[in-house]
Design a protein that fits this description.
By secondary structure, this protein is mainly alpha-helical. It contains five helices and three strands; from the N terminus they run βββααααα.
């Protein structure tokens, strides 16, 4: 692509480089956008949660978090997870990436049911619910455990 000069912006090899003045104009224009009128009124009462603010701080590299629920990333078994993902993709291919039943993939639920079944306690697929994490499980169980629905 040929070099081009137009109005303070230079485009070289398809990449645009703005001058500081043009960048300031873009920032000012984005600050002037007020989307509040496009959202439901109830969203005006929404506030940031303490957890969200805490996670912003804990994501900084100079912070060591002792907060519960934030395991040390270096302890994640990345190689074992990679092996598991590879095995699933080898076995089921694209089907593994497709949407499935809300409760989770039947074959996985059947396997979990067999793993946890005992002669005196039979677990069936219908007794197993796959969640995407502990927080989702707590959200599903909490109201029922407390008697609220």
């Amino acid at each position: 692509m040929p070099k081009r000069h137009d109005g303070g912006n230079k485009e070289v090899l398809g990449k645009q480089r703005e001058t500081p003045h043009a960048l300031r104009e873009m920032i000012t224009a984005s600050q002037e956008l007020n989307w509040s009128h496009r959202f439901a009124r109830r969203t005006q009462q929404m506030r940031r949660t303490a957890v969200r603010e805490l996670l912003k701080v804990t994501s900084r590299p100079d912070i060591i978090s002792f907060a519960g629920g934030l395991p040390a990333a270096e302890l994640f078994p990345v190689n074992r997870v990679k092996e598991a993902v590879d095995a699933v993709l080898d076995r089921t291919g694209r089907q593994a990436l497709q949407y499935a039943e809300t409760e989770g993939i039947r074959g996985l639920r059947d396997w979990i049911a067999r793993q946890f079944s005992r002669p005196q306690f039979l677990v069936q697929r219908e007794n197993v619910l796959i969640t995407s994490g502990g927080q989702q499980a707590l959200d599903l169980i909490g109201p029922r455990a407390s008697g609220r629905r």
